[in-house]
């Protein structure tokens, strides 16, 4: 009997799926996926190395960028094992504990990324509104505390999820909708009351994603007010230019998230391929493009990368 048709009483494993209607071992899917992950790993590692070795980048703005790169790297590494196993090797089965572990890390680093984007908005506000006190306000200790608070908040919010999933009996179909494990996806397969899971999941989303989105909106209203108070038009444009990379990072995170949420809520009539592609775009697009955006938009990072790759040609 095919594993896609079987029902297991209180089963302890799940079956992962890739893009519906496509052979999971098709190299036309596997090769682009490998390219995306390779680009993600290489791009974010380069950002981290450049910020570490370049003394001129040891500033609050770039420390927060390093946090974003580390978060993107961690988020990609959380989903990569099962994505590669499904699309490269056609290994679809994953045990319950491994699935719960993966969903914990995916949801945790998703929350961390949202929090880091808020911290970066605060950094831009302080830099524009209080330029003379920028280094005094955002000291190394303050930056470490902000990073720790962002991480602890996300861990605390997601920590109950494994226990909420572990208590559920699974006696229906064990086929998940994606090539990785998510709380809302696994929850649908339970043959018990999942209202507690649903309510807690909603509260966690409000506490992290919705709250952060509101803070980002308020932050940019304050930033815009601060920019408009600058007398020189040239200085106003320069101040706004420092925010463009961050605005791109915010859009890369929230636009796919909102799109995936709307399709999940109102697009039940759409093809399963659309749902799967939107979920993969939400998970894969920001870690791939964030390093590209900051490398292109940030002159200091771009110059250092050019020096790293061209030092044999141009000399020391």
Would you summarize the structure shown here?
This protein is mainly alpha-helical and 316 residues long. The chain has helices at residues 27-53, 60-89, 96-129, 134-137, 140-158, 160-166, 183-187, 195-228, 233-266, 272-297, 299-314, and strands at 13-15, 93-95. Helices cover 75% and strands 2% of the residues.
How does this model look, in words?
With about 325 residues, the chain is an all-alpha fold. The protein has a single domain (about 25-315), classed as Up-down Bundle (Rhopdopsin 7-helix transmembrane proteins), CATH 1.20.1070.10. The protein has helices at about 25-55, 60-90, 95-130, 135, 140-160, 160-165, 185, 195-230, 235-265, 270-295, 300-315, and strands spanning about 15, 95. A two-stranded antiparallel sheet has the order 1-2. It starts with 12 loop residues before the first strand and ends with a helix. Putative odorant or sperm cell receptor. It is a multi-pass membrane protein. Belongs to the G-protein coupled receptor 1 family. One of its GO terms (cellular component) is plasma membrane.
Largest beta sheet: what is the strand line-up?
1-2
Strand tally: 2
Strand content: under 5%
Helix count, DSSP H or I runs of 4 or more residues = 11
Number of folding domains?
Answer: 1
Helix content: over 70%
The main pleated sheet reads as: 2 strands, antiparallel
What separation lies between the terminal Cα atoms? 65 Å
Average pLDDT across residues? 86
